[in-house]
């Protein structure tokens, strides 16, 4: 089973300004309502614990492996619940320059695993709402700094 969710937001700042906030992993606890903490600085090919807070109160610590940290382009990690194939998620942030010095942020996740049919509400409602909250908070943080 597979499922994908994706959200976008336009940020009134150049891509470098958005990127600098996205990779400032130590500042997430200050402004992010959903990604609460990184246990260390992520590096491609390595695992870094990430504390997530979903709307509605569910908190979970994931230990994803970071797949991409491509400057001014993409952050991508993949986590799993217990073992591969049960409930896996490949999370991504993509930044794209658009007209007038703005930046488009695309945040999404590709879910797979046998638990997908049982977790549709959590994916389609709670997780997607969390993405929307995160995007708005990132926009406010970037535009406030810029």
Automatic annotation (TrEMBL):
Domain of life: Bacteria
Signal peptide: none
One Pfam family this sequence matches: Polyketide_cyc2
Name of protein: SRPBCC family protein
């Amino acid at each position: 089973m597979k499922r994908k969710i994706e959200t976008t937001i336009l940020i009134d700042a150049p891509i470098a300004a958005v990127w600098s906030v996205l990779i400032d992993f130590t500042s997430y606890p200050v402004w992010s309502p959903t990604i609460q903490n990184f246990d260390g600085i992520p590096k491609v090919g390595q695992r870094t614990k990430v504390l997530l807070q979903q709307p509605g109160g569910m908190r979970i610590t994931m230990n994803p492996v970071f797949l991409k940290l491509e400057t001014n382009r993409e952050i991508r990690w993949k986590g799993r619940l217990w073992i591969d194939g049960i409930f896996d998620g490949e999370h991504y942030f993509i930044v794209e320059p658009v007209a007038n010095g703005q930046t488009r942020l695309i945040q999404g996740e590709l879910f797979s695993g046998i638990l997908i049919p049982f977790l549709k509400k959590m994916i389609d409602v709670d997780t997607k709402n969390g993405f929307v909250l995160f995007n708005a908070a990132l926009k406010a943080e970037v535009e406030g700094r810029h």
